[in-house]
Amino acid sequence: MASGFSSQNLDTPFSIPPLFFLPFSPPGPRRRILFEGFAHCQWVPGPPFTGLPSVPPVEVQIEEKKRALSAQKPVELVCRAGGSRPPANITWFIGNQPLKGTKEKISSEGNITTGRLIFIPTIEDRGKNISCRAENMLIPGSAITDEWKVDVHCSPPFGYDIQYQIL
Q1: How does pLDDT run across 88-109, given as a tens digit for each residue?
Q2: 79 with 54: CB under 8 angstroms?
Q3: For the chain, N or C: smaller number of CB within 10 Å?
Q4: Would you put residue 40 in left (φ > 0), alpha (ψ -120 to 50) or beta?
């Protein structure tokens, strides 16, 4: 058979193209031993291969940092992280305490992660730092952070009307 090896050459039921073995082994019985070695290879599951290298996040930003917050009034915090492959994981902190309930959304291009968190500030949070950390879990030490020093105001009790009078 001119186009490849047949079962007559290798004692196998396969037809192998001739270039498959020529660079790897000399002709004869050694070629058959080499083929049997290939035939007994096993696939071992591992992490999915995307064909692309892992890249750490290059930027992280908390949106609307300049606003003051009212105690006991829920506010949505938004943080965007970009450049990471695979997409970055976002974690929120107040001081050193992690905040739970982050909802993440990944852009259709896959390179921007948006983390949203509903936060209910207390007067004790005044002056603390809220931080957003973006991290590629496949790259140890890849975390980058953006911080915001929180300004929390007390709101007057419900139904209490404050009036200012100029004398």
Answers
A1: 999 999 999 999 999 999 999 8
A2: no
A3: C
A4: alpha
Q: What tokens does 146 get?
A: 């953006």
Single-letter code of the amino acid located at 7: S
Residue 22's CB is within 10 A of a number of other CB atoms, namely: 11
Q: How many CA atoms lie within 13 A of 29 on its CB side?
A: 0
Q: Which residues pair with 115 in a beta bridge?
A: 79, 104
DSSP assignments along 72-130, one per residue: T--EEEEEEEES-BSPPEEEEEETTEEEP--EEEE-TTSSEEEEEEEE---GGGTTPEE
Q: What is the Cα–Cα distance from 142 to 88, expressed in whole angstroms?
A: 10
C-alpha distances (whole Å) from 15 to each of 31, 48, 70, 109, 124 are: 14, 31, 76, 43, 76
Which 8-state DSSP code applies to residue 160?
Answer: -
Contact 99, 119 (CB under 8 A): yes
What number is the average pLDDT over the span 45-72? 85
Count of residues making up the chain: 167
Tell me, what amino acid is at 100? K
Helix (H) or strand (E) holding 14: none
pTM higher than the cut 0.70:
no
Structure tokens at 96: 């050193």
Helix (H) or strand (E) holding 10: helix 7-10
